[in-house]
Design goal:
The structure holds two protein chains of two kinds. Helices cover about 35% and strands about 25% of the residues of chain A. In chain A, strand 11 and strand 12 form a beta hairpin. The model of chain A has no long low-confidence stretch (mean pLDDT about 95). Classes of the chains: A alpha/beta, B mainly alpha. Bound molecules: adenosine-5'-triphosphate and magnesium ion (MG). Adenosine-5'-triphosphate binds next to helix 1 of chain A.
């Protein structure tokens, strides 16, 4: 097997006295789609947000593509990186949010070319062509000049995915990408994600869509109380869980 | 990938026994029309009575409207307003960012500044700057504990114009800071997170993502402040500067044509206000374009051909 894309090594994190992540060990292989499931407050979002250093971890280490995230290691010491270098790491780790977070003052096309032009320095014309191609792929080729507030939730989330893809990421983090959508719009977003999975994109997906976890993801990690209780192929974790807590959770969501 | 297109809605076949469609008659609004006519009549008679009233001294107004002293006063008032508002906006932005800092010392400094400059009359601040030489005869700048110091006579550095710029500009910074802070806070924190996750630095996300979206909140009160400054700047007459109002006062103190000269000043204040209002609405339109229910104009060469 090739080197893992993401490695969590004994990662812990607290908010004040509340320990949210308790010694997480996890590896994600390149091209793997891993879904994170678990009850509310179990630390799924926090885990995801640590991967691109939106949250600081207290101990342990996270590496993406062999690079320590957020810090520079010198012997046993890890110095936090200056803002610019952290930004450079984040540029290749895309994130898709529950509330889309599209830039409201920019058109769909401007949303997608913003980071390539401003962060990667891609010439505008080049970025526009690339963006138009990606938007075509997610089925929004006719919405380039629309503003986000004129789009449906499903369309907005597809723009957000296109915005993520425009950065040619090594890894995409999805935090409940369909939770804010009306039920009939969930499908169009999941279809886009399924296509990405088939193309071999590495993805970590926090989701409540059990069907998606079962059909698309290579592995499912069940989190509870800041720990990964079990992690394995969906056939095992979802169909035949070995832990009581997993069983209780699954019986509630199904 | 799945691009589902909506299927056409089932069309209602016209059935012959349906009742005919209603014809809608909009409300007439006679009351509103009557009120408008009455208001217009009152306004007109008011204007006629002013225009026909010799006590207003309209010929004197005409005579002094473009007087050299009035013109130079108008010039001072105009550029002083522009300069102090620029200082106010720049300083206000810095203070707003400082006030929102998670570092307690930094936010404390910003809040203390606000407390002092909003808490004392701007007239006092103007006089204070004007008389700075009495407090600090020399102004020095340099690196402490070294010989790298530059020192100048306060009376040379703080001319009346300088005192006016400092007094009005530093005061305005405090007020603008609160306006800008409320604008920045109105932008959802998810916007900054998205910008961060795309690899933008704090500075870039502030400049490209947060500030443009704060603008619709910031502009209307900033317009108010600018128009207010137009008139507040007349306080500089206490430090011997001849602004628009003071120029009018100087003239009527000699010829006793008080009302006509005040009218002259008001005509120019209103003109300047009209220009500022027009500028404001242009800027508002620019930043409000994403709120319109239309697509952006197609201005990309790339897509025009397709
Ligand atoms: N910024 C914060 N400050 C303090 N506590 C926080 C913060 N963010 C999250 N928490 C707490 O950390 C715990 C884990 O939060 P997290 O958002 O990771 O849960 P989650 O598994 O994503 O839940 P959900 O399914 O509801 O999104 C929760 O108890 C939450 O209250
Ligand atoms: Mg969450």
């Amino acid at each position: 097997m090739s080197d893992p894309m993401v490695v969590f090594d004994r990662v812990s994190k607290s908010y004040g006295a509340l320990e949210v992540l308790k010694g997480i060990n996890l590896e994600v292989a390149p091209g793997e789609v891993l879904s994170l499931i678990g009850p509310s407050g179990s630390g799924k979002s926090t885990l995801l947000r640590c991967v691109n250093h939106l949250e600081r971890i207290d101990s342990g280490a996270i590496t993406v593509d062999g690079e320590l995230i957020g810090y520079r290691q010198v012997g046993n010491l890890a110095y936090e990186l200056p803002e610019k270098l952290i930004a450079r790491q984040r540029a290749r780790i895309a994130m898709v949010f529950q509330n889309f977070n599209l830039f409201g003052h920019m058109t769909v096309l401007e949303n997608v070319i913003e980071a390539p032009t401003q962060v990667l320095g891609v010439p505008r014309r080049h970025a526009e062509e690339h963006a138009a191609a990606i938007l075509e792929r997610v089925g929004l080729g006719d919405k380039l000049t629309s503003y986000p507030r004129m789009l449906s939730g499903g369309q907005q989330q597809r723009v957000a995915i296109a915005r993520a893809l425009a950065m040619k990421p090594k890894l995409i983090l999805f935090d409940e990408p369909t939770s804010a959508l009306d039920p009939e719009l969930v499908g169009e977003v999941l279809d886009v994600m399924r296509a990405l999975a088939e193309e071999g994109m590495t993805m970590m997906v926090v989701t409540h869509e059990m069907a998606f976890a079962r059909d698309v993801c290579h592995r499912v990690a069940f989190m509870d109380g800041g720990k990964i209780v079990e992690c394995g192929p969906p056939g095992e974790v979802l169909a035949n869980p070995s832990h009581e807590r997993t069983r209780t959770f699954l019986s509630k969501v199904n | 990938m799945d691009v589902s297109s909506p299927s056409p809605a089932p069309s209602n076949e016209n059935q012959t026994d349906q009742p005919p469609l209603l014809t809608y008659v909009p409300i007439r609004g006679y009351g509103r029309k009557a009120a408008a006519i009455v208001l217009a009549a009152i306004l007109l008679s008011f204007l006629v009575s002013i225009a026909g009233n010799d006590n207003f001294g309209w010929p004197v107004v005409g005579q002094y409207l473009f007087d050299d002293r009035i013109m130079s006063g108008l010039f001072l008032t105009s550029w002083l307003t522009v300069v102090t508002m620029v200082i106010g906006v720049v300083l206000g932005t810095i203070l707003a960012i400082m006030a929102m800092s998670t570092n307690n010392v930094i936010s404390f400094v910003a809040n203390t500044y606000l407390w002092f400059f909003r808490g004392t009359p701007v007239l006092v601040q103007l006089i204070f700057w004007y008389n700075l030489a009495a407090l600090f005869p020399d102004l020095s700048i340099g690196i402490p504990f070294t010989s790298l110091w530059v020192s100048i006579d306060t009376n040379v550095a703080i001319t009346p114009v300088m005192a006016a710029i400092l007094g009005l500009g530093l005061n305005e910074g405090a007020y603008m800071s609160e306006i800008i802070r409320s604008g920045l806070m109105s932008v959802d924190s998810g916007q900054r997170q998205a910008a961060k996750s795309l690899g933008m630095t704090n500075g870039k996300s502030l400049w490209r993502i947060v500030i443009p979206q704060a603008m619709p909140i910031i502009i209307p009160p900033t317009g108010n402040q600018t128009i207010g400054m137009l008139k507040t700047s007349s306080l500089v007459s206490v430090i011997a500067l001849s602004d628009l109002l003071y120029s009018a006062q100087t003239i009527y103190s000699r010829n006793f044509q008080t009302i006509p000269l005040l009218i002259v000043a008001c005509i120019w204040y209103l003109t300047a206000t009209s220009i500022l209002t027009a500028i404001q609405s242009r800027i508002e339109r620019h930043y409000g374009r994403s709120l319109l229910q239309t697509d952006a104009p197609v201005r990309w060469r790339l897509f025009r051909s397709s």
